[in-house]
Design brief:
Belongs to the krueppel C2H2-type zinc-finger protein family. One of its GO terms (cellular component) is nucleus. Its main location: nucleus. One of its GO terms (molecular function) is DNA-binding transcription factor activity, RNA polymerase II-specific. It is found in: Nucleus. By secondary structure, this protein is α+β, with helices and mostly antiparallel strands. It folds into 2 domains: 22-52, Classic Zinc Finger (Double Stranded RNA Binding Domain, 2-Layer Sandwich), CATH 3.30.160; 57-102, Double Stranded RNA Binding Domain, CATH 3.30.160.60. Helices cover 41% and strands 12% of the residues. The protein contains 4 helices and 6 strands; from the N terminus they run αββαββαββα. The strands form 3 sheets. It has a two-stranded antiparallel sheet with strand order 1-2. A hairpin with a 6-residue loop joins β3 and β4. The longest helix has 12 residues, at 13-24. The protein is extended and about 40 Å long. The mean pLDDT is 90.
């Protein structure tokens, strides 16, 4: 199955349909707590952990827990010292893209 917009290929039609939301900005899955919209049900389920207070993702270094895996991954950069976002002008590195933008 191939996306008509960007020609990316998928093994299942359902994957392609979900992918096409990227091009339309459609967010059909709505959180009943806050109304925020998501492109797929997995993202909605992950988001709902924020409201429930559940934090299933735990850092092995310091035991701090997070509601979303992406938040854990961002946190782990503290322990590794990695700074994946670098200023092209001066070479200064940052852990988060938002910090680079502020710079």
């Amino acid at each position: 199955y191939t996306c008509k917009e960007c020609e990316k290929s998928f093994s299942q039609n359902s994957q392609m349909v979900c992918h096409q939301c990227i091009h339309t900005e459609e967010r059909p899955y709505k959180c009943l707590e806050c109304g925020k919209g998501f492109r797929d049900s997995c993202s909605l389920i992950s988001h709902q952990l924020i409201h429930s207070g559940e934090q299933p993702y735990t850092c092995k270094e310091c035991e701090k827990s997070f509601s979303q895996n992406s938040h854990l991954l961002r946190h782990q950069l503290i322990h590794t010292g990695e700074q994946p976002y670098t200023c092209r002008e001066c070479g200064k590195g940052y852990r988060e893209s938002s910090a680079l933008l502020r710079h």
